[in-house]
Amino acid sequence: MGKNIFFTDLDGTLLNDQKEITPGNRKAIDAALRAGHKIVIATGRPLASALIQAERLGLMREGCYVIAFNGGEIYDSSQRRSLYKKTVPMKYISPIFQEAHRLGIHIQTFASSEVLAEEERPEIYDYVKRTLQTFRIVPSVVTALTEAPCKLLAIEYERHEVIEQFRRDILKKYEGILDCYFSNEDYLEIVPCGVTKGKAIRWLCNYLGISMENSISAGDAPNDIDMIEAAHVGVAMRNSFPGVVEHSDYVTTVDNNHDGAAEIIYRFVLEDDRTR
Helices 160-173 and 93-103: crossing angle, nearest 10°? Predict the structure, then answer.
């Protein structure tokens, strides 16, 4: 049996609703790594947040990688180094922030170790609590940034039609430069054009010399669709958002709270008959 590579989203996939890994998922991951397979966290979260989770999950060892920012950065966990990075050009950041402010939409971006925003709002407190990060409110994120960021994130909890129009306006104004899509119903990811989890998994497989025939991916949200379609076996979680399962080869029989990732690992990575 050839060695496989498993790309897994974090929230709603590898982690349960309490943002923890279940004992069954942890046991399956350990079994896969012991057998020589590779495990890759593929998340919309910034790298700093993804690495905190990787440390907690024991995924900073040989055979482990992180795809962060929806594919904007790829990181070798065992070697503690970045392999690939694509950023939002600085000149577009201020106009997008200004338009978000005009519409009353919370918007933030990311320095190497913290979240940056220009307005102190409840959304940023919710975000850093969920992602285990710190934040800083600054007069200008462009001035505060020491390098171009991998993404911007707009958050709107109640007025979906407003943030949807904001998404359409960005796609039109910055066509060929920026892309944007929802990672859940409230979070609009704004990234360099061409950045997706799907392209990132192709890049990493090529870099590692692993055939796409040996790739398995799992996710639950719209920003996972490209990754689900790109892998040889694309899996949607039972708890997936509407419109995701139609793009998958397989849907888990259990959700993220009941060892759904373990089901995938045993069935497609380790290729045995267990589903727990």
Answer: 150
Q: What is the DSSP string of 130-199?
A: HHT-EEEE-S-HHHH-SS--S-EEEE-SS-HHHHHHHHHHHHHHTTTTEEEEESSSSEEEEEETT--HHH
Query: Please, which residues have CB within 8 angstroms of residue 84's CB and are 6 or more apart in sequence?
Result: 73, 74, 200, 203, 207
Return d(Cα 272, Cα 136) in angstroms, integer.
Answer: 48
Residue 39, H or E segment: strand 38-42
User: What percentage of the chain carries pLDDT values higher than 70?
Assistant: 98
pTM of the predicted model, to two decimals? 0.91
For the chain, the residue count is 276
Q: Label residue 271 by pLDDT band (50, 70, 90).
A: confident
